[in-house]
Structures are given as C-alpha cells and as structure tokens.
Amino acid sequence: MSHSSITYDTDTGFTEPNPTASGSAPVRPNTRLPGQAAMWFFVLGDLWIFTCYFACYAFDRAREPMAFLQGQHTLNQDMGAFNTILLLSSSLLVAWCLKAARKQEYTQARQLLMMGGASGVCFLLIKAVEWYIKIDAGLPEISGQFFIYYFMFTGLHFLHVSLGLAILTLAYLELKKATSGNLAFVESGAVYWHMVDLLWIIIFALLYLM
Amino acid sequence: MSSAAVPTSPGIELSKSRMLSNPKLDQWICFWSIPVFYVLFGIIFVIFGRIMPPPTPAMATADVVAFMTSPYLSIAVVLLALSLGIYALNSGLMLTQMKRMEGVSPVLRYGYIAVLGVGGLPGCLFPGYMFALGAFRPEYDAHIQVMLYELGFLCFVGSLGCFIIQYTLFAIAVFLDKRQLFPKWLAYFSIWTLVTELVAAPVFITQTGPFAWDGLLAFYQGTVIWVAWQTCLTFYLYKAIKEQPIEELGLPMQPNEL
To answer: Most CB contacts within 10 A, which of B13, B163, B179, B234?
Structure first.
C-alpha cells in the first residue's frame, strides 16, 4: 500500500484513493479494516466467550432472582457509575488520540493517549477499592452464586483492562517513533480498548442495574 | 515396455532408506507422538476412567464409592502412569521450534517446557494416583473414598496456574517472533484459552452451578477452547516442521546448542 496514493479521511479514519495520484480512478467507499485483522479475530472471539458468561449469568439469575437481587443491592452503584463514566471518557480520549495521529499530530495524540490510559488506571484503583470494601465487610456478605459471578466478571474485566493498559503503553511508544503514518498497531490498541469499554457497560448493566 | 520388468523391491528399499535418512525424522516422530498421546488421553480419561466429562461434586456417597472402586478406573490409571511421559516428546518439539523464532528471549521457551513439565503433575499424575488409591483399597471407609475423589478432581480441574503461564509465554513468544513461525491470531487464541482457564478458579469454593468442577464455564467452555487451540497449534507445528529449511537443522549439533 503506497502512501503516496492514499489519503486518510481524518474524521472517519477511512483511507481513500487519492484522485490526484491515481488519475481518473473512481472514488470508492473504502472498506479497509482499521487495525490488524488478528486483533479483530481476538476481539470477536473474546466477545463470544463473554457472551457465554453473560448467558450463564442470566440463566442462573432467572433460577433464583431473589438471591441475586439481594446481592445486587449490596453493590455500590455510585462507584460503578463513576467507573462507567471513567471508561467511556477513556474510550473517547483514545478515539481522539487516533484522530490526532491520523492528522500526524503525534504530540497531541500522545497526550490524549496518556490521559486515556490514566483514566484506565483510575478505573482499576476504584475497582480495587470497591473489592476491598466488599471483602472487608466479611465473608457472609459476599457468599453465594451472585458474588462468584461478581468477582469473576469484574476480575476478568480487571485483567482485560490491565492488558489494555499494556497495549496502550506499547501504542504510546509506537506513536513516539511514528512518522510514516502506519497506525495499524495504535488502531488495534484502540479496537481492543473499545471492546474493554463495551464489556464493562454490559457487566455494569447486568451486575449493578438489572 | 521395458520398465515393467523392473522389480519393485528396490523402490521399496529406496523409500525406506529415504525415510530413515530424512533429516527431520526425529521431529516427525515427536510430532506424531502428539496424536498418539491424545488418543491415549481419550482412552484413559473418557473411555476407561470416566473422568471426563467429570461427574458432579454433589454425587451421593454410594455413587462416589462405586466410581472410585471401578476396575476400569484402575486400568485407566495404569495406562496413565505408563504413557504420560510421551508428552515430553511434544515439549521437546516445541522447544526445537520455538528456538527458531527470531527476536524472542530463550527464557520464554525454557519457561514454556518447564511449566509444562510441572503442570503434568497436578493436572494428570496427582489425580491419577488419588483414583488409583481408591481402587487399590476398596475396603476404605466411604468418607475416605469421597475425600480421594474430591482431591482427585480438584487437582484435575483446578491445576490452573501452570497452564495459564504456559499460554502466556506462548502468546508473548508468538507476538515477539519476527519470523512469524506461528500466526499472530494463534497468540490471541492462547489468550482466550488463558481467560477460560482462569474461570475455573472458583472450583475450590463451589459445588454446583457453572463454576463447579463439572460446570459449563469451569469445565466445558475451557475444554472446548483448549481442544480447538491444541488442534490449531498442532497444525501449525506440522507446518513449521515441514517448512523448516534443511540447512537450518543444525546437524551435527553445535556446542552450547539447546
């Protein structure tokens, strides 16, 4: 893919054949996949795995709705909601970062990515505090099937966020040396980060709100 | 046609000697040990042992005693004790192929085989010996049989940590490998395997439901993903051996080569 004949649409991130470079070639809607195909493979598979978890949760919840409701009431909705806002803002910051990077404004892109990552770190800290409060309240408070789901889901998600932060760090380093406009890795990182966000929204709705 | 008169035996001789002089013969032997091992694994754990799919932790005491004292279970354990070592051939092959990766620290491949060597103990041998003991002394008190049964299954399904590190090391090695011996998506696949393995952690605290040792999430999902992963890995291992250039085989072995 020669960069001389490709232009980035800085709003959509789609590439389009440059009419001046390719002569009279008709402008076609671009179908380029942002990021690496392997990352999409991973994200879709991961979503499928989580779908199985959520289906199991829904099934078990329907069997003993009262016990699950009781467990849900003990969760701190404010903390959950704040974490949701944090992660959503983080996703937005990462999206802006990519937009800036496509305009080749790498310094700004790095700053945005840094802020996105910092929100992710705050998310983890709040999650840890939330767990601490739960565990500190005593084991009888956190027994039962609901809390196994609670700790497994939030724990797995915690792991995903940690992995996401590692990926964002690598993306940051990539942006530091980016000059050629090859953003495949940064795009992959953003795709993953948005998945982490999406998963949290579902977990939040299922565990805290439903 | 004069060629019809040529006897066929030299042809057979030729192919035989070609097979023996195949410079990758060692690797192919190790490779074909993988399906042999997994067929044995199936015979031991599924057909004779009835260990997979696992019976429920909530099984009645009489049923547990019947399970533990089944003569087929002891046959399974004997077969397991005899054949578990075959897996070492697979580990050796993985080490040989991971050595070909470029830009990957040797620590990862050493860690990979070390963790596999350790993982086989809690994951296979330990439960095997628990079950063997139950069958060895059927006159044991029912409570002791239940304890051995539970210990066996907790080891079998709950041997998580080693395999988690195995998948992690493999994924990192594939990501770093500049040569792309294994496709990147296989590294991501390893992460799924890791995630589904993690979900088995609550087997130590639950006796029913999806997180119990016979549960949908703790056992079935993880097993399905693992079988798919192992199949893909075996396929790409085959490809890697096939495409390995002869001159890279390093024969005779160089000093300090491992």
So the answer is: B163
Answer for the pair B130, B73: CB distance below 8 angstroms, yes or no: no
Answer for the pair B161, B116: CB distance below 8 angstroms, yes or no.
Answer: no
How many residues in total does chain A contain?
A: 210
Q: Calculate the CA B236 to chain-centre distance.
A: 16
Cα-based angle B173, B178, B183 (whole degrees, multiple of 5)? 65
Euclidean distance between CA atoms A183 and A176, whole angstroms? 12
Backbone angles phi, psi at B239, to 5 degrees: -65, -40
| Spatial separation of the C-alpha atoms in residues A5 and A23, rounded to whole Å | 10
ipTM over 0.95: no
A38 shares contact with chain B (CB less than 8 Å): yes
Question: Which pair of tokens denotes residue B222?
Answer: 């993880």
DSSP 8-state symbol, A5: G
Per the DSSP assignment, residues forming a β-bridge with A16 are A7
Closest CA to B122 of B204, B59, B182: B204
> H or E stretch including A17?
strand A15-17
Which residues in A117-158 belong to E strands, given as ranges?
Answer: none
Alpha carbons A10 and A76: distance in angstroms, whole number:
40
Please report where in the chains the tokens 């609670």 appear, as a residue.
A150
Q: Does B198 touch chain A (CB under 8 A)?
A: yes
DSSP code at position A1: -
Please list the residues that pair with A8 across neighbouring strands.
A15
Kindly identify which residue of chain A lies nearest to residue B225, measuring between CA atoms: A49
Kindly report the pTM of this predicted structure: 0.82
Contact by Cβ (8 Å): A57, A149: yes
Which residue among A38, A49, A152 places its CB closest to the CB of B202? A152
**Alpha-helical regions (H) of chain A:** 37-63, 65-73, 77-102, 106-136, 145-176, 184-203
Q: pLDDT tens digit string along A105-139?
A: 889 999 999 999 999 999 999 999 999 998 888 77
Structure confidence at residue B159 (pLDDT)? 85
Residues of B within 8 A of A39 (CB-CB) are: 188
- Give the 3-state secondary structure percentages of chain B, helix then strand then coil, rounded to 5: 75, 0, 25
Q: Decide if A49 and B210 are in contact by the 8 Å CB cutoff.
A: no
Single out the residue of B184, B170, B198, B179 nearest to residue B240, CA to CA.
Answer: B179
In angstroms, how far apart are the furthest CA atoms of chain A? 73
